[in-house]
Description:
Layout: H1 5-8, H2 14-20, E1 21-36, E2 41-57, E3 61-65, H3 72-79, E4 87-92, E5 95-96, H4 106-111, E6 112-115, H5 129-139, H6 146-159, H7 176-188, E7 194-198, H8 206-222, E8 226-231, H9 234-238, E9 243-248, E10 251-257, H10 258-263, H11 268-275, E11 326-330, E12 333-336
Parallel strand pairs: 3-8, 3-9, 6-7, 7-8
Antiparallel strand pairs: 1-2, 1-4, 4-5, 9-10, 10-12, 11-12
The site of iron/sulfur cluster has 14 residues, from loops.
Organism: Geomicrobium halophilum
Family: Belongs to the ABC transporter superfamily.
GO molecular function, one term: ATP hydrolysis activity
Amino acid sequence: MVNNIEVLERGPEKSTLEQEKILQIDNLKKHFPVKSGVLQRTKGHVRAVDGINFYIKKGESFGLVGESGCGKSTAGRTIMRLYEPTEGKITFDGEDISTQKERHLFKLRREMQMIFQDPFSSLNPRKTVGSMLVEPLKVHGLYKGSKERKEKCQEIMSRVGLNPSFLNRYPHEFSGGQRQRIGIARALVLEPKMIVADEPVSALDVSVQSQVLNLLDDLQVDFDLTYLFIAHDLSVVKHFSDRIGVMYLGNMAEVAEKTDLYDDPLHPYTQALLSAVPRSHPRERKRERILLEGELPSPANPPNGCVFHTRCPHVMDHCKEIEPKMQEVKPNHYVACHLYE
Ligand code: SF4
């Protein structure tokens, strides 16, 4: 699928939209080399992210969804510059950060933070919570004195619902939900503008998932945060996002306002994903379950034309040859599918 960012920017309110954007992603690609043999020669590439375009407005919560292996987490890490982009442009707060060297990313490291999926492995088991929170403050030269830094850490602890006296404890002394709160505290302590949350509740018990989601919701208002919220579960994203992008095999299939996407999904892949989401209210329209045939193709060898054509119930001959362009089919509703051309 070829996604055309020019189309995404069309409309009379373009200049206002430009001012509102905090993140703009243009044709972002991340390919990983596949090596084999004794000499470890490159035999091909895994096209984990293969040319995606989207933007996020300040204060917005943008959900990036798709099944496992669609490239959404790689996209998040590439945007954070934890991975080097293969191609494309990442503009954060008006600055092109896609080609900056690590030493120039200091400001970005403060202003964009990440919450990881697994609260067990993302925390250093040998460090107390206090030292994990103080370290970034020291690195960025904030709150010069140790007393001020400790007070800041205590304040963040209570803000995420943890007892400030727990600063001396180690990660193994906490439950899964508490550990994710520590991960959130670590992301928040530098008061970033934006947080990339990569499946932040999927490793947690269902009983604590909603507590953590509610916390993230409250923090967004209190800290004036923008979220890129990555998830495979559409029902989680539904309650959390203002707009949603649906990814399939490294490509963006559809981008729309949340209600529009749920009420009127246009891309056959989005329709299939949504058909599997249980109704949250008896009056909600019942969807007929759409079962996709076949497996997700390998991103090392994606299909020609529309990458979804091997599983699409509406496939046409030209879908197998020609990549569909992303186009605005309804106001602020974009889809990459030949059915709408
Ligand atoms: Fe892709 Fe064609 Fe199906 Fe649209 S109809 S999703 S272009 S295969």
